[in-house]
Amino acid sequence: xxxxxxxxxxxxxxxxxxxxxxxxxxxxxxxVIWMGISAVNWEFLTQAPRNGMTEGGIMPAIVGTVxxxxxxxxxxxPLSIATAIYLAExxxxxxxxxxxxxxxxxxxxxxxxxxxxxxxGAFVLFAGFGTSIIxxxxxxxxxxxxxxxxxxxxxxxxxxxxxxTVSLSLGASKWQTxxxxxxxxxxxxxLTGMILGLGRAAGETAPxxxxxxxxxxxxxxxxxxxxxxxxxxxxxxxxxxVPGMPVSIQYGTALVLLGFVLSLTLxxxxxxxxxRRQREW
Amino acid sequence: xxxxxxxxxxPLATAPAxxxxxxxxxxxxxxxxxxxxxxxxxxxxxxxxxxEGLPAILDIPLRQLFGPQWYPIEEHFGxxxxxxxxxxVTVVAVLIALPLGITTAIYLGEIAPPWLRDIxxxxxxxxxxxxxxxxxxxxxxxxxxxxxxxxxPTGLTAFTGAxxxxxxxxxxxxxxxxxxxxxxxxxxxxxxxxxxATQWQTIWRVVVPAARSGMLxxxxxxxxxxxxxTMAVLMVTGNAAxxxxxxxxxxxxxxxxxxxxxAAEMGEVAQGSTHYxxxxxxxxxxxxxxxxxxxxxxxxxGVSGGRRSRPGGSL
Lengths: 281, 315
Description:
With about 280 residues, chain A is mainly α. Chain A is built from eleven helices and two strands; from the N terminus they run H-H-E-E-H-H-H-H-H-H-H-H-H. Chain A is globular, with a radius of gyration of 23 Å. Chain B has a two-stranded antiparallel sheet with strand order 1-2. In chain B, a hairpin with a 4-residue loop joins strand 1 and strand 2. The two termini of chain B are about 45 Å apart.
């Protein structure tokens, strides 16, 4: 076998392997849409489940997931952005900074079920919030921090150095420079990171299992100390815990969850593209 | 540009008003405190798991804790079957994901034309965004019956879990391996091609070896991702907390992982019971495993980052 033949065979094999990776992804998305689209209609999106969840819609779960996503944003955003500003603008090359970065890497690597355990111990039991929206939002918010911090830091660092130099030379203080010049320029990147993090949080099941998710709750939560249904947990429940569940409702729920999470990802990339076009550097 | 349009109100005004200065001192202190909060959060999570998990480690004799029986109802808390389950599923998942992921990374980085790359990369990013419960659901409702028809007594097996985990680990492995390949200097490729190597020889003998530390990191983070995954393995591995006998076909037997055990049992235990504390001890173990993997990977990334700036360092 000549070298050229080996080369051609190797390229062919690699093309096939890449197809083995990519094609199932398209199949998964296509299959969920194919099987679920018939169940998704106006009633499905706006009605509460009826008759032991085998009829009706999934509105409480959708609303619950939206509430939890907002709660996650409120918890995660201020602390994450402050940390990103610290890392990008204040942190020196010293031991503390290295520890912060190491902590971030590890925070990102903690299994989601361990976040669930932490949320149960710290927020539900120790802080006494009970199984509630606030306990779930705090858990998900902490889990989302590493993504938001690293994308925000990147966005802040990407603002050209001249912005800082010019602003400081005009007499602005360091904080004025950050607040009036750097942050507005970094905003698209920060928003992108935030939405990506929220997309991840919205689809998570393990962290909300013991902190907020309700098996079945016909009415909507009244306060942040109430439990709520949520799409990922609802999908788990109707797939494995309820006998005689119509398959179409299961696929319909999977499709709504997938649609919600993927549209957040899509919005994030649209924000990035649109704002980049607006930018003048 | 925003800076140019800023009205030059008083560029020469010297000291800022005292009120503003104090405000800034406060804001900057808040930011510095927030900056180090991440360290405290990780420490806090660790202490909480330790606090709730330690009673189990102290109460249960070590022989039992590392014994082969997990029957919580009869107060048998042997972690061996769960460790075995996690290990088996993770190792098989990484063995599947590794060749697929690294080959795809090479294909994307070195071979695919730009237009194809622009199509394939977003698709792989979509995979990273699919919630694990959705993949678990598909594994449960579609993949498991398929595997059963291939001759296994049940479709809910270690292999089913490993297959799904492999795909979940792929985006991580591909993106890190791609970064590693990207960091190999252009001159290495040019040099190899210039002395008459084919593109394949260049990739296999020059580029991949130069990127090997990055590949190692990809493997490690893939393992970290797979071992912590919960919902998908809970749904598709069959949840049998026993070690299959040697004669059986290990891969196609039901197993139960550490993560799935916590998820399945925490909802039903009484707070403060031995069972409750054991589940926290399992969480502590998972925390420490991923902590070790990620700290090591972070260290290696630091090392390879340093190497990158020295051309010709690692060949």
